[in-house]
Design goal:
Layout (H helix, E strand, L loop, with lengths): L4 E3 L8 H15 L1 E5 L5 H23 L2 H10 L6 H5 L6 E5 L12 H27 L5 H5 L11 E9 L9 E6 L5 E6 L6 E5 L2 E4 L7 E5 L1 H6 L9 E4 L6 E9 L5 E2 L3 H9 L10 E2 H11 L5 H8 L2
Length: 314
């Protein structure tokens, strides 16, 4: 099995209906798919690769002193104790987050300008993707974007953040996770993954399969709130990153999420349609996204169904 790869450039041509069907299949049957010819220039993507790799080179020595490295060194030196158990609950990952209002790395010099340009293009793609999901679900244009807002104020608009990660080579990859298995809490995730070093896997039908590297593709996956809004028609997929013995995996994940003030619930139209078909579906509870995040931060690596149950009682 291979994660679907979709030529996004055909969306605005005579093959539009076919592309819509491919995206619907990616959302319904996979929870993951890859876009090529998505409209973000290769020149910009090459600059993103360079500035992120150059940025990590400035952080690389710091990772060598990080807790994951220290714990693995203890295990390899025979000082197992609690170290081996702690390694199960930690990720072999160097990571920082880019938001509109937080501090970004100042080096390399081109980093901020390049990543600001990239995030602008990614946000446009995210909003186009949720419009397509609305269309495929039979919802009015803009439904999901409005649902993700918690009010008219700028601070209550949909949240957009970017996580820049590197997974350095690991001397004992069987002892540690690159990134532990989880589903994403929010809406639509757009990942620009390494096109040389693999390691990302998704769970499908009980089997872990590789999300194969495709040069300059953008990987799309749906989070828990898309599952809720679609009343279970689109499921958030479990995924993980394996620690690798060689290569330095770059991963740039952008998240288009609801505002923390947004009230999330299945679209009434989809609940009614399910009832008309004598198929009540999952009928997820209504909740405030900020409350869900409180639960999620404590249960991120645990089964997702209890999270929905827990937030319903908040």
């Amino acid at each position: 099995m291979a994660v679907p790869v979709i030529d996004f450039s055909k969306l605005d041509g005579p093959e539009r209906s076919e592309v819509l069907a491919q995206i619907a299949n990616g959302c319904e049957e996979w929870g993951f798919f890859q876009l090529v010819n998505h409209g973000i220039s290769e020149e910009l993507l090459e600059r993103v690769k360079k500035v992120c790799s150059d940025c990590y080179k400035l952080r690389e020595e710091g990772f060598k002193d990080s807790l994951p490295v220290q714990l693995l060194d203890d295990v390899m030196d025979g000082k197992k104790g609690d170290a081996q158990e702690q390694l199960k609950n930690i990720d072999w990952e160097d990571v920082f987050t880019l938001l509109d209002d937080n501090q970004w790395p100042s080096q390399p010099q081109e980093f901020k300008e390049t990543m600001m340009e990239y995030r602008t293009e990614l946000k446009k793609l995210a909003e186009k993707m949720i419009e397509i999901m609305d269309e495929n679900l039979g919802l009015e244009k803009g439904y999901t974007k409005r649902a993700f807002c918690g009010g008219e104020e700028p601070e209550h608009q949909a949240f957009f953040g970017t996580k820049v990660s590197h997974y350095p080579p690991c001397p004992q990859p069987e002892l540690v996770n690159g990134l532990r298995a989880h589903t994403d809490a929010g809406g639509v995730i757009l990942l620009f993954q390494d096109d040389q070093v693999g390691g990302l896997q998704m769970l499908k039908e009980g089997e872990w399969i590789d999300v194969q590297p495709v040069p300059n593709a953008i990987v799309i996956n749906t989070g828990d709130q898309i599952e809720v809004l679609s009343n279970g028609r689109y499921k958030s997929a479990w995924h993980r990153v394996l620690a690798m013995p060689s290569g330095n995996r770059r991963s740039i994940a952008s998240f288009y999420n609801p505002s923390l003030k947004a009230t999330m619930a299945p679209a009434l139209q989809l609940v009614t349609a399910a009832a008309d078909q004598n198929n009540a579906g999952d009928n997820y509870p209504e909740f405030v996204f900020g409350d869900y995040m409180t639960v999620y931060t404590k249960q991120k690596f645990q089964p997702k169904e209890p999270r929905f149950q827990a937030v319903a009682s908040v």
